[in-house]
Amino acid sequence: MVAKDYIDESTGELICAANMELSLDLLAKLSQSGHKRIETLFTNDLDHGPYISETLRVDPTNDRLSALVEIYRMMRPGEPPTREAAESLFENLFFSEDRYDLSCGWSYEVQPFSAARRNRRFRYPEQRRHH
């Protein structure tokens, strides 16, 4: 899969859109138009599935604003979407520090865990006697 749109610089023509499957013909077109480096999306069936690529393929939106409006319509059905309302909803859902303050959860200090410390914690004597 191609990771971004590629345009022929001399004509302004779109050679391929992002998320298009890379074929030998497409590779030849890109090479002929002067593109030396091609960014791709790596997927495999083991641990890097094509989930994002498949989601983008069925997504009807083509730009940021239309995507925000679609999210707004799903979250607030019946309310007319405006640019400001859609942007505000998205910002508050995902980027608001008031809603997602994770700082307390990630500030633990890791200390070495020695056997002596473990024994004190569970009230075991330092050395056990064997009869």
UniProtKB/TrEMBL annotation:
One of its GO terms (cellular component) is DNA-directed RNA polymerase complex. GO terms for molecular function: DNA binding; DNA-directed RNA polymerase activity. Keywords: DNA-directed RNA polymerase, Nucleotidyltransferase, Transcription, Transferase. GO terms for biological process: DNA-templated transcription. Its EC number is 2.7.7.6. InterPro entries: RNA_pol_Rpb2_2_sf. SUPFAM superfamilies: beta and beta-prime subunits of DNA dependent RNA-polymerase. This is DNA-directed RNA polymerase subunit beta. The gene is rpoB_7.
